[in-house]
Amino acid sequence: MRSRASDSLRNVTLTPGFAKHAEGSCLVKCGDTHVLVTASLEETTPSFLRGSGKGWVTAEYGMLPRSTHDRMRREAASGKQSGRTQEIQRLIGRSLRAVVDLSALGERQIIVDCDVLQADGGTRTASITGGYVALAQCIGYMKKIGMVTKPVLKDHVAAVSCGIVGGTPVLDLDYAEDSTAGTDANFVMTGSGGLVEIQGTAEGAPFSDEEFTQLLGLARKGIGELVALQKEALGE
Amino acid sequence: MRSRASDSLRNVTLTPGFAKHAEGSCLVKCGDTHVLVTASLEETTPSFLRGSGKGWVTAEYGMLPRSTHDRMRREAASGKQSGRTQEIQRLIGRSLRAVVDLSALGERQIIVDCDVLQADGGTRTASITGGYVALAQCIGYMKKIGMVTKPVLKDHVAAVSCGIVGGTPVLDLDYAEDSTAGTDANFVMTGSGGLVEIQGTAEGAPFSDEEFTQLLGLARKGIGELVALQKEALGE
Amino acid sequence: MRSRASDSLRNVTLTPGFAKHAEGSCLVKCGDTHVLVTASLEETTPSFLRGSGKGWVTAEYGMLPRSTHDRMRREAASGKQSGRTQEIQRLIGRSLRAVVDLSALGERQIIVDCDVLQADGGTRTASITGGYVALAQCIGYMKKIGMVTKPVLKDHVAAVSCGIVGGTPVLDLDYAEDSTAGTDANFVMTGSGGLVEIQGTAEGAPFSDEEFTQLLGLARKGIGELVALQKEALGE
Amino acid sequence: MRSRASDSLRNVTLTPGFAKHAEGSCLVKCGDTHVLVTASLEETTPSFLRGSGKGWVTAEYGMLPRSTHDRMRREAASGKQSGRTQEIQRLIGRSLRAVVDLSALGERQIIVDCDVLQADGGTRTASITGGYVALAQCIGYMKKIGMVTKPVLKDHVAAVSCGIVGGTPVLDLDYAEDSTAGTDANFVMTGSGGLVEIQGTAEGAPFSDEEFTQLLGLARKGIGELVALQKEALGE
Amino acid sequence: MRSRASDSLRNVTLTPGFAKHAEGSCLVKCGDTHVLVTASLEETTPSFLRGSGKGWVTAEYGMLPRSTHDRMRREAASGKQSGRTQEIQRLIGRSLRAVVDLSALGERQIIVDCDVLQADGGTRTASITGGYVALAQCIGYMKKIGMVTKPVLKDHVAAVSCGIVGGTPVLDLDYAEDSTAGTDANFVMTGSGGLVEIQGTAEGAPFSDEEFTQLLGLARKGIGELVALQKEALGE
Amino acid sequence: MRSRASDSLRNVTLTPGFAKHAEGSCLVKCGDTHVLVTASLEETTPSFLRGSGKGWVTAEYGMLPRSTHDRMRREAASGKQSGRTQEIQRLIGRSLRAVVDLSALGERQIIVDCDVLQADGGTRTASITGGYVALAQCIGYMKKIGMVTKPVLKDHVAAVSCGIVGGTPVLDLDYAEDSTAGTDANFVMTGSGGLVEIQGTAEGAPFSDEEFTQLLGLARKGIGELVALQKEALGE
Q1: What are phi and psi for residue A58, nearest 5 degrees?
Q2: Could you tell me which residues of C are annotated as the binding site?
Q3: Span A106-125, mean pLDDT?
Q4: B38: three-class secondary structure by DSSP
Q5: What is the structure's pLDDT at A2?
Q6: pTM for this predicted structure
Q7: Distance between start and end Cα atoms, chain F
Q8: Chains meeting D at 3+ CB pairs closer than 8 A?
Q9: Which residues contact E185 (CB under 8 A, 6 or more apart)?
């Protein structure tokens, strides 16, 4: 089924500047998973930060109704965002904030919108990886116009999922693998290798410390490669 | 400001089959307006048609939050679709149904999702023009697998906006033109030239019968060209 | 079925001052369609106009649950206004604003509520015709107390629907006619004959330019008569 | 301020059959309080009664936005019914059901819609008094077409408010009296004088048993007169 | 069925200070009905009181999903509070405000949350009785820190339900009694015996003045006992 | 600040059968965090399992408004559950299902309601630990009445949070510790030591593999003790 090695990423492309209007943007493709990410700069900050001198980075996530194999009901039509949507956008926001100096950003907000055009597994990790690129482009724009002067980004950040499929630990699950994985874990790490977020779930039998350590190793390899692609896309 | 002739369409491309999962799809670009349309086949029909032997075609419409110059609030987050969104999706649905033989379709439903990736005026008319292509591709699929046998599509259908800008009647308004137009009208016509829908609005001063007739003439020219592009895209 | 001539309006009465509390009001009856319209003056303006010196006129529309042949669900109970309701209230608002000098109105808002007590076709056009009367009464009140000094109303405005029923173009459709019309169009015009809004829809087969021109002619005749009735009701 | 005696009702008129489409209806006017009530027959019953052979009577209540001195926000626009609205419609429903033999009604439902066209105090009690008339007319219709054969209505029911205003117990409060009343009570009684519902509230100081007894006496007198008007309106 | 006398309360306990964080709190148990009440002090007041120098006391009410015999749907999940919930929280708020000097409270608000941990009839009356204790504790705290100086509470307030069960008037209905009662009434009274609220409902046949007088007498006895328990709990 | 050892749990008590009506229940106290958990048996299953022969276990979570230091808005009043609430109830449901044989349960559903009476950190992990006890009691009831015959529970499951506070890895964070922790992780494990869920988040600086391993070790110790308390509470 899987044609590539168990420790290989799918084919990944990152296209910054895909969207005409946004201060930062990136079309990220991980295999057949395609996410359009935009970073929008707003001169207001959430009320809990007003007067603090600090800014904020937040994320929103959505899927086009037919990004999936069967059509899903449009969340705008059903009148609310699902628990899954809210969980994902909280994760993306936390992950990106982990590498942002909110004081250097100043009292303003960047909203990172991650819209899944086509889904084939790993949409939340692709959103983080591409979200970093859109965010960096937005901050680059702010620097250019003199809106920020100190470094805002403290590190790179990227994410990948790993899982145990048919007894084998594998990197970067597509939808078919994700559906059959016994254990499924998402990892978010910085460019310098620090852990930002770990989410591991036993879908079938519980997993052991050893299995978890193997997944962590695969993630470390994959995220290293993703950060290299981010640097290349941003011309660093 | 306007570099093309007052009776010229913007550059239009129609890419059928853009989406992997949908039975029909089309990426439609009219200048900087980009809409991703999918046609999803569902084996259920609205309750008011149950037992009638007839099917249904309906449309949904959405804009990515940063498809616009300033970021708009995500409708899924605000918990409801705006009046504008509902008005547009009703228009798209009516327009497409005008060329569908609902009895030949049989008791099933096609949902046409029009999601604006980038907006620069004319998103509703682009959705109708691209929606026809996605719908035709979906019906082609149904024919191929023997789900329908009689012709389902009775004609082509496409749409364009026209307006009076600085006193001059012009075809296919972009956002800048739309914002300054004194009168703004959307036209939906069939391939054989029949009128399906007319929506004309005086934004400033009322308009005259003569002005309206000029806009109708421009629309007729533009829609003829759009139908030719539809045929080409569908390989007819 | 139709006892009056194809170019005759139903019996129309306009009763200004029907409501005790409102600054302006009108009970409009077009045949068996009865709409109670009130114009409420509020000393606040929408946020997008704050500081502009300009005012606003907006409309809301509702139907009593048993205004229709079969009882409809109360929108307050279902928790949202339908797409049809929103489309209608946007149309009424646009139509009335077309004859209002928003600068002369000053930074305040008039809300025109159109509540259908009994429905028999043409509720949106009756709302516009009666809405003008309520609005004019409200502005008369504002003049009397010295709140406005310059003329606020630039012209009259009224509306009517026309359609092609059984092959014949007819003026002012009742519900039975509307349900069987092949083409159905709403026209909004000023007292001096300018076009404010045109909405034409093919319910069955597409319609031709000639048919549309015929409907436009009928509308022009009917709206002339409605404006005369408005003047009479307002004692002009 | 009050021109009539402390134990006099306001001028009351009950106009059955006011609405064209409904099986039963009544326009009830109590002074400047005007409520349009319709009774709609539906051939379905709430799920908790399915298979029981019993029917149901329920009520809904609404106020037109400008029925009041200052415009109120439309509940359909705010997306929910207020606590006050829900409390009132529960009271109306309970009161009407108190005189209905639900088994004789059969497994169907009557929905009584009470829409306040103009408010000047006592809208909930007017709704009950007029609601009985609309309900009786609806049941009369059901009898005529043979849908029910046994008597469905066990008695008449009507309602009135009383209060202590400036130290004096008075019958049938208008809005000005209601706003200044120290104690305010609504009474619902049957034609034969049985108590169906009592709701007494101290708006200022608590009230005594004696005061309450006085209000009860006034209510008994007023409801007797209202029931006589109901009989007259229904031609009994 | 009923093991205690017809004029006896169930076993009642009032435990002030049950909640760690709240300024005032009380766990009230009336037989198997258990309600956790907290009184939360907030330094804001509703907008209609801003600048008036007056404060406000309001109540909210909720039931844990499995406080009842069959699980009820969680109101937070269904997205709105039922009409019953709103009616109850309005009653609790009105009852508590009847003994509060809102001017002495100053421009701040106390929110009394009544959450039913276990239900066996009489949850709204238990909420009022326990709500007074939580409120008194909160005001005691405010006195201690000097936030209020004049007496805020003008009297005690407590509540109980009575009903006619199998022809016999009884005090303090449990769920089984409440379900079979022909007439059901809630009484709210002050410590000095003034009536604050009366809500009597005929569940089956209408009731007479005499029956109502008997229920009032029972309530007066029960509320006297409840006020004595309040004083004891508060160490007065 | 912390008076107990860095590898000590807070004082934990588990009281099964706390709620009168529910098939299973448990009051769980972890220090000042108190959660009332009920397990409700329902003879329906979600639609996606109908006909599969399998059952379902799901969880809902709520906080009383004043369970926290400052009062939180009631989710039923705000009309929706927050992203945090939904994330927590999804975690609890997944964790409990990890030890349930859904086929042995049969086509029915158990809803585990976790309502926080008082919060002092670790409410989600306490809900899982107490949820297991309520679930086990519910399944014990089902066994007793012969509703299930095969073993439904495959193992125990419990949860605890760990974190790095002031540079030191500590077990079972209270609110004050959680607010200042640099890294915060929740662990869910079975009685036999298998990992069910890991959620680790860097609140400040990213964390290392070594730090994470230390937290995992602390969790393993704590969960072992919690499972022993579960067995004791259930009399196993």
Answers
A1: -130, 165
A2: 84, 122-124
A3: 97
A4: strand
A5: 81
A6: 0.91
A7: 36
A8: C, E
A9: D198, E161, E162, E163, E198, E199, E200, E201, E212, E215, E219
Flag whether the ipTM exceeds 0.90: yes
Q: Give the nearest chain D residue to E192 (CA atoms).
A: D206
> Quick one: tokens of B140?
């082609």
- Please enumerate in sequence order all residues whose Cβ is within 8 A of that of D47, keeping only pairs 6 or more positions apart, or say none: none
Look at E87 and D90 and tell me if their CB atoms are within 8 Å: yes
Tell me if residue D19 falls in helix, strand or coil: coil
Low-confidence stretches of chain B (pLDDT beneath 70): 1
Smallest Cα distance from F208 to chain E, Å: 36
CA distance, residue A208 to nearest chain B CA (Å): 36
Give the separation between CA F2 and CA F200, rounded to whole angstroms: 22
Q: What percentage of chain F exceeds 70 in pLDDT? A: 100
Which amino acid type is present at position E3? S
Positions at the binding site of A for phosphate: 84, 122-124
D204 among annotated binding-site residues: no
Indicate if the pLDDT at residue D1 is higher than 70. Answer: no
Query: Which residue does chain C place closest to B91, by CA atoms?
Result: C201
Closest chain F residue by Cα to residue A185: F198
Number of Cβ within 10 Å of residue A131's Cβ equals 30
Could you tell me if C104 and C150 are in contact, meaning their C-beta atoms sit under 8 angstroms apart?
Answer: yes
Q: What b/e readout covers F223-236, taking b as 16+ CB neighbours within 10 angstroms?
A: bebbbebbeebbee
Nearest-angstrom CA–CA distance, F135 and F132: 5
Among A110, A121, A129, A116, smallest CA distance to A75 is for A116
Closest among D67, D50, D130 to D96, alpha carbons compared:
D130
Rounded-to-integer distance, Cα F149 and Cα D50, Å:
34
Which residue bears the tokens 């670009």? B29
Alpha carbons F167 and E25: distance in angstroms, whole number: 38
Domains observed in chain C: 12-234 (3.30.230.70)
Residue among D84, D192, D197 whose CB faces E201 most closely = D197
Residue of D124, D121, D57 lying closest to D85 (CA atoms): D124
Bridge partners (DSSP) listed for residue B35? B28, B116
CA distance readout (Å), C38 to C33, C34, C114, C138, C159: 16, 13, 7, 9, 18
Length of chain A: 236
The pLDDT value recorded for residue D44 is 86
Cross-chain CB nearest to A207 (options F89, F185, F194): F194
Distances (CA, A) of E148 to A21, C37, E108, E145, E151: 56, 50, 11, 8, 8
Q: How far is B162 from chain A (nearest CA, A)?
A: 24
Torsion angle defined by CA atoms of residues A43, A47, A50 and A52, in that order, rounded to the nearest 10 degrees: -110
Give the integer Cα–Cα distance in Å for F27 and E74.
19
E contacts of D209 (beta carbons < 8 Å): 195, 216
Residue E47 buriedness (CB in 10 A; 0-12 / 13-18 / 19+): exposed
Chain D residue closest in CA terms to E87: D87
Distance CA E183, CA E193 (A): 23
Interface touch D65/C111, C-beta < 8 Å: yes
Q: CA A234 → CA A24, A37, A136, A138, B121, distances in Å?
A: 11, 15, 8, 11, 31
Per residue of chain C (236 residues), what is the pLDDT tens digit? 688 999 999 999 999 999 999 999 999 999 999 999 999 999 988 888 988 999 999 999 999 999 999 999 999 988 889 989 999 999 999 999 999 999 999 999 999 999 999 999 999 999 999 999 999 999 999 999 999 999 999 999 999 999 999 999 999 999 999 999 889 999 999 999 999 999 999 988 899 999 999 999 999 999 999 999 999 999 99
The CA-based angle C111-C63-D132, given to 5 degrees, is 120
